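Render this sequence as a predicted structure.
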Amino acid sequence: INIILTKDNNSYRSFYNALLHEGYRDLAALLQDGIPPVSSGNRKSSMDGMTSYGQLKTILCEGGVPQRPVVFVTRPKLVDAIKKKLYCLGSDPGWVTVYGMAGCGKTVLTAEALRDPQLLEDYFPGGVHWISVGKQDKAGLLIKLQNLCSRLEHDSTLSQRPPLNIEEAKDRLRLLMLRKYPR
């Protein structure tokens, strides 16, 4: 805690979010009152309005976007193709689906596309929420959906209990997406 307190506000928020999403809700609840407010000054660089590298890293980390692997091969054409699809969404809600064989690099390419500060600033001003679903049994899927609900409701004034089943989780996520996160 002492090390975190010597860092900036983003570090405290990241630590709080990590506790919350890794199953330490009781500890996170103890720290909840001390969470510093997010201001536009914390997210932007004062020089040019662009998101700085450190702030970009924090936004991606808080959203659960995977880090770049140690062995990384750049594939700029494929990354640019994903970025173009994301830019095409504009202000309209929608989806971009990246598909392919297991291990072909879908996750790495998509995460790399999200490392574009201009893309995040223009199209994901509230950050990103990354979930990896893969092949899950119903219990595993419910846990993933509960975590996502918790992440999306973190700033809500009403503390809601986690959804008890997959249908309830789907309904809650649908309403959250329509009302709170339309983009």
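Summary. The chain has ten helices and no strands. The CA atoms of residues 91 and 98 lie 20 Å apart.
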